[in-house]
Amino acid sequence: MQTLTGRRMNPLDASPEDIDPDDIAGALANICRFGGHSRAFYSVAQHSVIVCDLLAERGGSPDELMAALKANKQVAERLPKLEQAVHDGQTTPGAAVAELMGLFASARSSA
């Protein structure tokens, strides 16, 4: 594959020298947060910076930061599937919200 900075690499056989932080930042800046469920484009990169800044301001530990990022990632991945399940009548809105809140609680307890 070709990365944002123009490097060619095999993601199945990558070495540390193949990875450029600018490529990672560029890719995260192009992924819309919350599965696109926002009024304006809001990138994963933007969200990550805001979360890091808020936790630092509040004296959060690195473990708390990782738990928050993990929970947010799980919710962002699960949200579109839950919305479809509600739409299809396979679950209720309340059950979907309970599942999402369970993801946050699970991530917090593992920090």
Give a structural overview.
This protein has 111 residues and is an all-alpha fold. Helices cover 59% and strands 0% of the residues. It has four helices and no strands. It has helices at residues 21-29, 44-57, 62-87, 93-109. Helix 2 packs across helix 3 (62-87). The radius of gyration is 17 Å and the shape is globular.
How many DSSP helices? 4
Count of spatially separate domains: 1
Flag low-confidence runs.
none
Number of extended strands = 0
Helix vs. strand class: mainly alpha
- Radius of gyration, whole Å: 17 Å
Q: How large a portion of the residues is in β-strands, by DSSP E? A: under 5%
Largest sheet, described in full?
Answer: none
Taken in chain order, the helices and strands follow as HHHH
- Mean of residue pLDDT? 82
**What percentage of residues falls in helices of 4 or more residues?**
55-70%
Assembly state: single chain
| Shape descriptor | globular
Q: How far is the N terminus from the C terminus? A: 35 Å
Please outline what is shown here.
Helices cover 59% and strands 0% of the residues. The chain has helices spanning 21-29, 44-57, 62-87, 93-109.
Set down the secondary structure blueprint.
Layout: H1 21-29, H2 44-57, H3 62-87, H4 93-109
Helix pairs in contact: 2-3, 3-4
Kindly list the characteristics that best describe this protein.
0% strand, 4 helices, 111 residues, mainly alpha, globular, 59% helix, single chain
